Amino acid sequence: MKRTRTVLVTGGAGGIGRAVAAAFTAAGDTVVIADRDAQRVGETAEALGVHSRVLDITDAASVKRELDSVQAELGPVEVLVNNAGLLTVHGALLDLPGDDLDTILRTNVVGTFRMTQQVARRMVDAGVAGAIVNISSIGGRQPTPGMGGYESSKAAVDALTRWAAIELAEHGIRVNAVAPGPVLTEMIAVGMPEGSPQRQAWEGRIPLRRLAAMDDVAAAAVFLAGDTAAHITGISLPVDGGQLLT
């Protein structure tokens, strides 16, 4: 029988984070979703039947406070999914303000580092051989004009994944990443409906000719955190329909 684990999903109020939380819940785990949007995270938690915390990954005090709270209520986090990140700030190399790049890196890289460090410390102290899964992007390996700030941050997340994996291996903690291509989130489904020229252009880059479903990404996260991936650490697994082949 599968052992119930405490799973923390950041950015869990919607989109990929919500799908990941639902997938771990369906697998029988005790799930906590964390997000800085208090109203939305509460509503999502109620809908999924999971726990929630209001947490800003860019705020060290918020991270410590909420991780302490989760551990006091549910025990040490055994699986961390670093999903929270900033996707909406873009700009060409010659145009992107430096302050915008700083915001992207502070959220996607430093925030992911902070969560990884704080959860890993607690795992080590508790003797937990846990798993950490970062949500990255194939953009870290395949550039798209105008998205270089975001893609640079995800290349750094892949490097952070390898860094954490090599140093935490001695504690039995595995660290991997899931690297989606374009994902059919609610926002994309509305902004680029099926059959639209923009949607067709995106799908045309993908050998399997469809965007990833959020459940595709969630399934990869559950796999990498599970016993069937017990000898896998330090990878960034593309979920991209073959886009990196092109």
Automatic annotation (TrEMBL):
Residues annotated as domain Ketoreductase: 5-205
Top-rank taxon, per record: Bacteria
MF GO annotations: oxidoreductase activity
Record keywords: NAD, Oxidoreductase
SUPFAM superfamilies in the cross-refs: NAD(P)-binding Rossmann-fold domains (SSF51735)
Alphabetical list of InterPro entries matching this protein: KR_dom, NAD(P)-bd_dom_sf, SDR_fam
Family: Belongs to the short-chain dehydrogenases/reductases (SDR) family.
Protein name: Short-chain dehydrogenase
Organism from which the protein derives: Streptomyces toyocaensis
